[in-house]
Structures are given as C-alpha cells and as structure tokens.
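Pipeline run #58 for the internal structure catalog. This entry was flagged by the ingest filter as a single-chain record with no existing model, so it goes straight to prediction. Upstream metadata was stripped on purpose; only the residue string is passed forward. Reviewer on rotation: M.T. Logging verbosity set to normal.
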Amino acid sequence: MTNTTSTATQQATCPVNQTGSLIGSLAPIALMILVFYFLIMRPQQKREAKRRELINSVKRGDKVVTASGIIGVVHKIVSETEVSLEVSEGVRIRVLKNAISEVLDKSACVEETKAEEKITEAKVNEAKKEKKPSMPAAKKKSSISKKKSK
C-alpha cells in the first residue's frame, strides 16, 4: 500500500509532460488568431487599399458620390485632400477627397462636358440673335387704339 501511495504523490507533485499540455492549450488560441486574421483583418486591409487607390485616382471629369449622398462631377482638384465638385450647372462645392465614397463614371469625359458647354453657349447666342427689339408697351397700346378707331 505504501508503494501505490508514493507513486500517486510523485505524479501529483511532478507532472511528467508539461510541454505537451502547454502546446495543447495554446493551439486553439493560435488557431483562433489565424482565423480572425484571414477572415476579418486581411479583407478589411484589401478594401482600405482599394479605397485609397480609388480616392487617389480621382481626376477632373469623374462623376462621384460623396458619403452624404451628393452626386457631382469633379470640376477641379484643389489640393491633395480637396476637390471641387459641380453638383448642378454653375454650382460648385468643395469637399474632402475622403468624403468620396464611390466613383460612378470614370472621366464622364471632359470632352463631353466641354461639348455640352459649347452647345449651351451656341443656343444662348442663337436666342440672342433671334430676339428682335420689341416696341415699348405704350407704343403698342397707341398702335392698337389707332387700328380700332379706323
């Protein structure tokens, strides 16, 4: 009986294989860290790199959407961090490049914009040429009353 008691006390005080139990307890934690990295961290880093590339590649004529939902065409690159957007004809606003969330049309063609401006200008000039000087209102009334009296 003393033989079994001494063996039991030896096993309780001196574990035989501590390294095997340490590796066994750290393996699930290491596995969770790897899964976390490949499922969460890495895709996020790829998205962020793609977004940075998108923001840095914005140029004049691109049709973009800001984070607040404003749609406009890049009129001018003001600085490395700012752009000027034309949201309506003649209406321009300055926004931070980081506020751009999406590029709808790459280079909604500066040529198209210039062509539209030329067409609009031509229509305005044409309208000015067609517009004839009209008689003042007082003369119109007197000419109408003369016609009625005849």
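catalog note: The radius of gyration is 39 Å.
catalog note: The chain has four helices and five strands.
status: ready for reviewer M.T.
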